[in-house]
Each structure stands twice: as structure tokens, then as C-alpha cells.
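Its record is retained below.
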Amino acid sequence: MTSQHLPPIETLLPHRGTMLLLEAVTDWDADSAAATARVQADSWYAADTGAMPSWIGIELMAQTIAAHVGLSARNQGRLPKPGILLGTRAYQATMSHFPAGTLLRVKARLVFRDASGLGAYHCVIMLDDNPVATATIKVYEPEDFNAFLMQTSNQS
């Protein structure tokens, strides 16, 4: 993985304001990315104690995947395309909440990607060098995002 010349997270993700949960991408290569997120006690997701419910970890993983896809596209001279989080079968967390003020490290490693845009990433959230959440996240990056949305809305 390389950490040289990584752009600010705001240039990699479309998320803004309180929906941008990552602080920075710290490392990336063709197959993986690592990012950091600090649990903010005054955020919209904060419990009474200021902690982040661990289920928010799925979004941390998704944002790390999106950053990886964006960096990969830039590296190939392309603009990133919008993608969709399809979900996971098993998100496992070792704690119900991530404590306020802690720095989480999120790692996403590409497991597969096919020509249609379907892909999967194995993701881990680390706290003090200990894994606190894991999942394999499925994503889809359609060739034509607007056509995909139209097709999806016509099926409902």
C-alpha cells in the first residue's frame, strides 16, 4: 500500500457535512484501501454516552470502498462513477458501540469484481490494533447509473 500523495477525503467521496464519516484515506493500492474515522461525541449518530453504534460500521466500510474505487479510477485516468452498496450477509461486531473520541481504522480489500460492475470487499474495522467489526460488503458500479436508477424505479 502507498500513502504518498493521497488526496483529501472530500475529493474522493460525494458525502458532505455530517454524512462524511471518514477523516482520511491513509493507504491504498490496486486491491485495497485503509481509512480513519474518529467517533464524534456530538454527531447525529451519537448515543447518550457519545459513542457510535457499531452498526454504523457498515457505512464506514462502504465509504472506504467508495474511496478505493475513486482512487482506482483516478489512477487509471478515469472519473469515478456512482456506485451502490448492495449489502452484506454477515456484519459482525465485537461491541455494541464504538467509544466516543476513539480513532477507528477501516480496511477494505477487494475480493472480486466482474465486468458488469458487481464486486465484493472484505472489510475490517480496527480499534487499538484489535478487529472490532468485520463483513464482506457487496457493491455494484453500473456502467450507466441513471439508466440503472430508471430501470430500478420502473420495476417497483
Notes: The chain has a mean pLDDT of 91. The first strand starts at residue 24 and ends at 29. Residues 57-75 form the longest helix (19 residues). Residues 9-155 form a domain with the Thiol Ester Dehydrase; Chain A fold (CATH 3.10.129.10).
